[in-house]
Amino acid sequence: MRTKASSLYGPEATAGTSTRTYSVGGQILAAPKAAPGLYLVATPIGNLADITLRALETLAGVDLIACEDTRITRRLTERYAIGAELQPYHEHNAAQARPRMLAQLAQGVSIALVSDAGTPLISDPGFKLVREVCAAGHRVIAVPGPSSVLTALSVAALPTDRFFFEGFLPAKEHARRSRLGELARIDSTLVMFESGNRVQESLRDLAAVMPGRDAAICRELTKLHEDITRAPLAELAAATDTLETRGEFVLVVGPPPDDAGVMDQDALDELLRAQLARGSVKDAVAHAVELSGRPRREVYARALELAKDNRDGDGED
Predict the structure, then answer these.
(1) What is the pTM (predicted TM-score) of this model?
(2) Least packed by Cβ within 10 Å: which of 113, 161, 247, 298?
(3) How far is 215 from 202, CA to CA, in rounded Å?
(4) 64-68, 197-201, 205-209, 220-224: which has the minimum mean pLDDT?
(5) Topology of 7-146 in CATH?
(6) What would the pLDDT profile of 85-96 be if each residue is shown by its tens digit?
(7) Distance CA 70, CA 60 (A)
(8) Domain 149-253's class?
(9) Residue 290 DSSP one-character state
(10) Which of 115, 124, 111, 119 is nearest to 143 (CA)?
(11) DSSP 8-state symbol, 50
(12) Which string of DSSP letters, residue by residue, matches 61-103?
């Protein structure tokens, strides 16, 4: 027997007989009309069966669904026979779409915001919309569910008492290494998104900047070809040539070990060589001192040696 709708819809939204429906296991279920407001609905990150019952009822009950890619969201709505209108909302049209959605909310429309996968506002443009909806005095209701961040943390076998979510790392090597140097000072587990065409480079940079840490590569979470690889960063970086790069990646890096205060000599040399290849000795030393925990005099002397070796090597016949 179907239970009554949750009170979040309001009594005025549940009065009368609803014609809004969705399907689960071949059974057609009625959904109460959602009360006006913006509903932040988490959707599956890969396996469509991970949708929650509350999410289905909400998506069926709203007037329209704002989504990043209507083609992707339509797979979900067709799977569960949901007939709500789909409206695109993504980084390229957000500035134009937000005023229209605010006007719709002011007229009493109910809107569900979804991302292509997972929880809205996590690495998508939903933040500005939510801020403006709140400022306008409209209701914002979270409908929690799947999250690739929490899924990766749960299977990485790394500490979860404190974690820092970085999102996507910079695409260019210099900016990426600089950002990783900042992240290296955070005493917690790190969670990062990465694309298949950059994951190998990012793993090598992580191993260079954060030596001694354990990590996990989480590929295609909840999908048919899900793969979790757990090992020290050095091992993961050494095996990047054989890494399957198709799919979506979440990288989880454990906190620094207790003895990680000072970078070892090999890691320092690798860092200096990388910096010297793209800039001056002065800049390389400044960057290495910040990351290595070693005295400036020591780092400067080593940088001069490596720079001299590079010049001597370039002069060989």
Answers:
(1) 0.77
(2) 161
(3) 13
(4) 205-209
(5) Cobalt-precorrin-4 Transmethylase; domain 1 (3.40.1010)
(6) 999 999 899 999
(7) 16
(8) alpha beta
(9) H
(10) 119
(11) G
(12) HSSEEEES-HHHHHHHHHHTT--PEEEE--TTTHHHHHHHHHH
